[in-house]
Predict the 3D structure of the following.
Amino acid sequence: MKNKDSEMDDELRPEYDLEHLLKDGVRGKYANQYQAGTNLALLSPDVAKAFPNDDAVNEALRLVMQLADLPIDKKIGQSES
């Protein structure tokens, strides 16, 4: 049972009884769904300075992806004995 002082300090209306409203609440219930739908990456400040906007970042990453698909000739850069 609540005392009078705590009822007076409570700004919520009586019909918004949080104990009743949150009794079946589960913390992080949708966290995995939310995380699966997000694809944000935090750039370090020095990296962020190099890219003026999202399109520039995407263009650079697409170039990296293309370069990763190129065959690498292991003989290039090696000195012959």
